[in-house]
Amino acid sequence: MLRLREQAESPRLQSQPDYEAIRSRTLTKLKLGRQSAAAKAIDAFIRELDDK
Predict the structure, then answer these.
(1) What angle, 0 to 180 degrees and rounded to 10, lies between the N-to-C axes of helices 37-51 and 19-30?
(2) pTM here?
(3) Residues 22 and 42: beta-carbon distance below 8 Å
(4) Which residues have a Cβ under 8 Å from the Cβ of 36 and sit 6 or more positions away?
(5) Any idea where the domains of the chain sit in the sequence?
(6) Is the CB of residue 34 less than 8 Å from the CB of residue 27?
(7) How many helices (DSSP H) and strands (DSSP E) are in the chain?
């Protein structure tokens, strides 16, 4: 029980997902290139996520 309390009280590490890998997989699934409008929109979205 004490161990569960310690885990709940300890700060959790915030890890960021690998945005580049996600971007690449998404573009591949959509069969779009890196310079497409969709890719530029994804890049803008990732920049917004990084700013927060």
Answers:
(1) 160
(2) 0.63
(3) no
(4) 27
(5) 17-52
(6) yes
(7) 3, 0
**Which residue is associated with the tokens 């029980």?**
1
Tokens (6 digits) for 1: 């029980």
Of 41, 38, 43, which Cα lies nearest the Cα of 20?
A: 43
Report the mean per-residue pLDDT for the chain: 82
CA distances to 6, 11, 13 from 28, rounded to whole Å, are: 43, 36, 30
32 φ, ψ to 5°?
-120, 155
pLDDT digits (tens, 9 = 90+) for 19-44: 999 999 999 999 999 999 999 999 99
Interatomic CA distance for residues 17 and 2, integer angstroms: 31
- Residue 7 scores a pLDDT above 60: no
